[in-house]
Amino acid sequence: MTTYEVExxxxxxxxxxxxxxxxxxxxxxxxxxLKALVRPSIRKLADxxxxxxxxxxxxxxxxxxxxxxxxxxxxxxxxxxxxxxxKFGKLRSANGKVALEYLDTAxxxxxxxxxxxxxxxxxxKEAITSSGCHFTGQTEYLARHFKIQxxxxxxxxxxxxxxLATRHIPLKDVPAHITIDGLVKVITGCAQGLYSFxxxxxxxxxxxxxxxxxxxxxxxxxxxxxxxxxxxxxxxxQRISVSGPFAADTIFEKAVQGKYDCVVxxxxxxxxIPLKLTGFNQAVNITLGLPxxxxxxxxxxxxxxxxxNKANPESLIQAIKIALQCTRNQRxx
Length: 333
Fold this sequence. Notes:
Layout: E1 17-21, H1 29-37, H2 40-43, E2 47-52, H3 54-63, E3 74-77, H4 93-111, E4 117-120, H5 125-130, H6 138-145, E5 152-156, E6 161-164, H7 174-177, H8 180-198, E7 205-208, H9 223-236, E8 242-246, H10 248-256, E9 262-265, H11 268-277, E10 284-288, E11 293-297, H12 314-332
Parallel strand pairs: 1-2, 1-4, 2-3, 4-11, 6-9, 7-8, 7-9
Antiparallel strand pairs: 5-6, 5-10, 10-11
């Protein structure tokens, strides 16, 4: 682990210290971080610590035609991106390795109470895996480090919240990974997270069916009867307000209309497609169950536009705002 010191002078003892990892250096992470933190309205919200490589940040600063030097936030410079062979938009195992080093440094900062919450810029799973680390996502990596078995991936925008029963697995493996106890843990984790992070004392949850039309009473698949309905009944016995299973082609409209606070989805794309259709640039990923608030923008590294000053920072800005608001709510809970 890299040795470093973080000196934060707070104007207010309660001001939140927010860490932001740069993500894959060849992606748009540095660009969206700078575009967010250059705004006084964002910079004043917290004490920000960016974990990354200063040389990359300064290069992006020049690409964005910024005047002067980087200022207004602290940088933990790991100096771990080699100039040789580096190119924006290029997938490399070396970039996957350094992206993990940023995440590991952030974990160390959390453990030593140098930061209060964490926002992670996008990484590339292929780049990290090719560096020699079995990696399915930052959510799983953080949950494994903090020994959280029931971490829940929730994604949200201004209109919709979804939670995933399964995450980054092949679609053919989804039915086998959905169990009664596992689904109950997702439902309870979702309810607890909505309370501690969002202040919802009795959130209304909807469970999405796995099969078309939520199986039409067993005509199209048996998973609803065998797993989903028993899990819903079990969660209700814990006094959780949860309904379903509902057909995926109708439930999201009801949630957008405000009839439900969150939809529990059976697999990744079932939840992320309606989420991104209803607000792509506001999409945010939040991990429920960790001992701190962690968010990230709801998009990837965008290699195709990296280094071209074309990236939209709005999803990251929303991730920052939500991380800060949820941290404040967590302190009050």
